[in-house]
Design goal:
Length: about 120
Amino acid sequence: MTTVSISIDVPNLADGIRFYSDAFGFAKTAEPYPGVVVMHLEGFDLCLLEKAIGSSPAPNSEAARHYTRHWTPVHLDFHVDDLKRALEIAISAGAKQEQLYDGAAFCSDPFGHGFCLLERKS
C-alpha cells in the first residue's frame, strides 16, 4: 500500500504548527524525530520539517533555504466550502492574500510557501 503526504520546511516548528492548525485545522499527531512533526486533517498528513534559514536543501547545492516569498512549481490547494470565511481565517493565522478571483484565492503562508484556497462549487 502506498500513501502520500506533503512535507513543508519551516524555520520554527512551533510557528508552523500554530499556522497550519489555526489556518486549516490540522492537528499534531506525531513527532517521530527531533525537528519533524506530523499533522493530520481529514485523511491527509502534512509533515513539517524544521530547517534553519541559510541551510542547504541538498548536498552539493549552492542554494540556501530562505523563507521570504518564493515560487515553486508544487503548492497546496485547499478546497473549501466558504472561500470568504476560509480566507479570513487563513489571514488571521498569518497568511498573505496575493490574488483573489471568483472562487479562488492565491495566498502564501508565513514561511513564503504559496497555496490556494478553492471554493467548492455545487
